[in-house]
Amino acid sequence: PLATTGDIVAPAYAEGGCAPAFNVIQAEHITAIVDAAQARRRPVILQLSHNAVRYHGALAPIGSAMLAAARLADVPVAVHLDHAESPELVHEAVDLGFSSVMYDASTMDYTGNVAATADVVKHCHEAGVWVEAELGEVGGKDGVHAPGARTDPQEAARFVAATGVDALAVAVGSSHAMLTRTAELDLELIGRLRSAVDVPLVLHGSSGVPDEGLSAAVRAGLTKVNIATQLNKSFTAEVRRHLGDQPALVDPRKYLGAARSAVAEETARLLDVLDGR
Ligand code: G3H
Ligand code: ZN
């Protein structure tokens, strides 16, 4: 069934476990991620980034498909808007029935980020929608690994109190869209953030972190773990393998189906990694 994000994140936060969140690009990702969650009997968060909305040209078609898949699932599935850069898109997701949103004003200065995020929180909480925000920009959205960015624990505590967010994305050594899994997380900082901040912490750019690093990050205090690139690597490798030397292959189901299976397999594998406390 469709779950609230709080219902998935809160128990993980209380138990020192992980709430895994996987990014959807198109319909094959939705099926693959839900299949893996059902196979592993694990709740999962399906998330759609603002960039993916731009790719589709609108939120409703793909967003409605995510919600429909969540309702059909036999494990709890939440539907989350990721890296929303405009309050208008947040409002649209709330109206469509999304479980939660991440409002990303991390490129603004501290004061601007607080003001913009607090407005979004007010709107979302009136509708019962859970909100994640980011402090201390996690780099890499421009394709450059910027491992140096860090979130300051005291500033993070102030930010959470001033905005009322339900979860906080923190910069602890990862970057978005890394093709190698070589990022080293600052586990000591994760521990300090966990003590200073009284809401669940979120890891972005998780694909660049090796399996052992992900387990260690959860043990150190991170709760929601966002994974996108790792699934896209599996998807694209499989498409490439199928199309390489088969000029007579024209039915997209042949290669998209194989790619979907590869994403389901990698999602299941990551669910095991993130479950292994
Ligand atoms: O918000 C999504 C995540 O931060 C995904 O990052 O593509 O590096 O796994 P990733
Ligand atoms: Zn992210």
Automatic annotation (TrEMBL):
Cofactor(s) required, per the database record: Zn(2+)
Pfam name, any one: F_bP_aldolase
InterPro entries in the cross-refs: Aldolase_TIM, Class_II_FBP_aldolase, FBA_II
Name of the protein in its database record: Class II fructose-bisphosphate aldolase
Organism: Saccharopolyspora erythraea (Streptomyces erythraeus)
Lineage, top ranks: Bacteria, Bacillati, Actinomycetota, Actinomycetes, Pseudonocardiales
